[in-house]
């Protein structure tokens, strides 16, 4: 289904919300009488239903960005996803009658266990209709599966790690997500809170544009001073992609190690992620800082390809590939996904230089807007830097958590 520009404009301007997948009332009454069943995904046919469910759930919502169906299918297969090759994950489907009404993944993240100790299980790939019984059943099945593997708390959503798409949108529902950011109905948080989940962490998406961004005059002198100190800024060398990937993994694990919920990045996951985004990444929006050949920090920004994908319904054929090619040339925003500096070189202004260079280089590609996300609520220094350059919060998100075992639902 192709969404018209008028629908998108109504979404952006009025923020009136959407009707999710309108169906025949007779079908609703019949399904309401059907028994709710939740079961683990054990076949390719069941996995296909699991993968396809969001395309039905969000049908008619002009702010949801459907991923390309083939990519989404491959994301759920161990042979194409390094995380699934290394970590136990179980998918569950909820069905009423013949209709899928929800899905969830129960996740053990071994890198998180090695970093923070065992005891935290995760959930992800979460989608459902607005039905408390469906959500409680899905969460219960995921919780029981994780309890058997030693989990004492349940946290999420993460797909499948916090190094990927994570969190629940809590404000900003009238805006489509930027690349690799989540989108969900407003009712998700309420339904999960009814199950006993509480906020574990909030994080923000900031936005700036070339007209409103304000860098203090000192930034020019700051970069000159850093240069005199032997710190240089460069772009990645794609002819040495394996070496550069190893460097970025090391940098990430050093620069982000004291962040809430940190999970180490590994080289295999990094390479898979890089190969997914390389076709549309601009080399000059990936910036590294180093001194004497030693990496100190890096910044990664990507064009917001979601602008081009919106409304294609996850399909390239027969003619959507032509629409995609035309739309990619009109992308006018980037998302700054990562920006970090190793602890011993923080508070020297390297982050300000990253942001300034990123905006200057983006404008050279005729891109004049940037989202900076996600920024932890607890990361005071980064929030202050963004406020200092006149960035504004446009969306907020939450990761939620509950103790295990689940408490019984309140009696009527």
**Fraction of helical residues:** 25-40%
CATH topology of the largest domain: Aminopeptidase
CATH architecture of the largest domain: 3-Layer(aba) Sandwich
Number of strands: 15
Provide the β-strand percentage band. 25-35%
Describe the largest sheet. Answer: 13 strands, mixed
Following the backbone from N to C, one meets helices and strands in this order, namely HHEHHHEEHEHEEEEHEHEHHEEHHEHEHE
SS summary, helix count: 15
Q: Determine the mean pLDDT.
A: 88
C-alpha termini separation: 42 Å
> What general outline do the C-alpha atoms trace?
globular
Question: What number of domains?
Answer: 2
State the low-pLDDT regions, or none.
1-30
Q: What class, by secondary structure content?
A: alpha+beta
CATH class of the largest domain: Alpha Beta
Using the CA coordinates, give the radius of gyration. 22 Å
Instruction: Find the CATH superfamily of the largest domain.
Output: Gcn5-related N-acetyltransferase (GNAT)
What is the element layout, followed by pairings?
Elements: H1 5-14, H2 25-33, E1 36-40, H3 44-57, H4 69-75, H5 82-86, E2 89-96, E3 99-107, H6 110-116, E4 120-128, H7 132-147, E5 153-156, E6 158-159, E7 165-166, E8 168-171, H8 187-194, E9 198-209, H9 218-228, E10 231-234, H10 241-255, H11 267-277, E11 286-291, E12 294-303, H12 306-309, H13 320-328, E13 333-341, H14 350-364, E14 369-376, H15 380-388, E15 392-403
Parallel strand pairs: 4-5, 13-14
Antiparallel strand pairs: 1-2, 2-3, 3-4, 5-15, 6-7, 8-15, 9-14, 9-15, 10-11, 11-12, 12-13
